[in-house]
Specification:
The structure is a homodimer of 197-residue chains. With 197 residues, chain A is α/β, with parallel strands linked by helices. In chain A, 45% of the residues lie in helices and 11% in strands. The first copy, chain A, has eight helices and six strands. The first copy, chain A, has helices at residues 4-14, 21-33, 36-52, 69-72, 87-96, 123-132, 146-159, 184-192; strands at residues 54-55, 62-63, 80-84, 102-105, 137-140, 165-168. In chain A, helix 1 crosses helix 2 (21-33). Chains A, B: This is Recombination protein RecR.
């Protein structure tokens, strides 16, 4: 019903995750009424990101320089390695400013239902790093979900024999949350992980 | 925290309507892990749409040929004109297959709160068409909202003196809807517009 060019744009936008037919239509009309300069900016951003970004050959974070800024930064703690599933988890940790060591991005979590086993994650590369570099602490920073826990268990079995100190981030009540809104699983983690004051 | 190129892409995506920081991040990662061919298709679709699409000089629908397919189609009813606010309303009507006449796209609705008055709509162009072509019926097809009603009232005052038959689409219960879920306004429209059976 729409002009063919418009239908094609709506179809391409519909392929994006979380974009249904109505959102695709709204985005398409937004793009049509935007200035040529703004559309150009969007197109350049997509093209450049696709062209320039790559995985860091050391930690597998997404980067436009290789090795990435974090791996190259000599002022960071070289003795500590934090294992995360995805680049966005790394970014969430960096935002907190709490951690100053190195990272290893697995590229996902073990999830048999999605056909993702340990062989799909960057575990071989992790073991190579552990053999080469002298880390004194390894921190597991996976989301407390079934997949995150499965990944933690797998990594624990793999790393513990190496004799390196192995920790995981704390699970418990999120800061600012109302006690009576916490779900049962979080509440039991909060009790399980209680500390003396 | 992200590589600069990635931050730039996320920032551009965040400007799109209905796309918040989390969605922008998800879209950016989706684009990064898509094949180069798929990204190319998206970029071409955006660029072509922006470059080729224009408003039909007769009815102001969005089109890649001028006049548009509907205006050019000689098998359509030339005596009937349906007035809609936006191209997407036209598409919704075309989908129903019920209407076979011509269209006029106003480009919006009267909405003083958004600073949109009759002077911002294609009303001058509408009057020119009405003076030139011999329409025997004009159908107002605005959404039954405050803005749609304001536009209908304005157009009615303008068109009625011309002596052309003027109708508006029926408001009432949507087909397939459960009676007891209908809101009060729809229910009163349904009663107001009741017909003898």
């Amino acid at each position: 019903m729409y002009a063919e060019t418009l239908t094609k744009l709506i179809d391409e936008l519909k392929k994006l995750p979380g974009i249904g037919p109505k959102s695709a239509q709204r985005l398409a009309f937004y793009i049509l009424q935007s200035s040529a300069g703004d559309v150009e900016k969007l197109v350049v951003a997509i093209t450049e990101a696709k062209g320039k970004l790559t995985h860091c050959s050391v930690c597998f974070n997404i980067t436009d320089m290789n090795p990435c800024k974090i791996c190259e930064n000599s002022s960071r703690d070289h003795s500590s390695l934090c294992i995360v599933a995805e680049p966005k988890d790394l970014v969430a940790i960096e935002r907190s400013g709490e951690y100053k060591g190195k990272y290893h991005v697995l590229g996902g979590r073990i999830s048999p239902l999605d056909g993702l086993g340990p062989e799909n994650l960057r575990i071989k590369e992790l073991l190579e790093r552990l053999a080469k570099d002298n880390f004194t602490e390894i921190i597991l920073a996976n989301s407390p979900t079934a997949e995150g826990e499965a990944t933690n268990i797998y990594l624990t079995r793999l790393i513990r024999p190496l004799g390196i100190k192995l920790t995981r981030v704390a699970y418990g009540l999120p800061v600012g949350a109302d006690m009576d809104y916490a779900d049962e699983a979080t509440m039991s983690k909060a009790f399980e992980g209680r500390r003396e004051v």
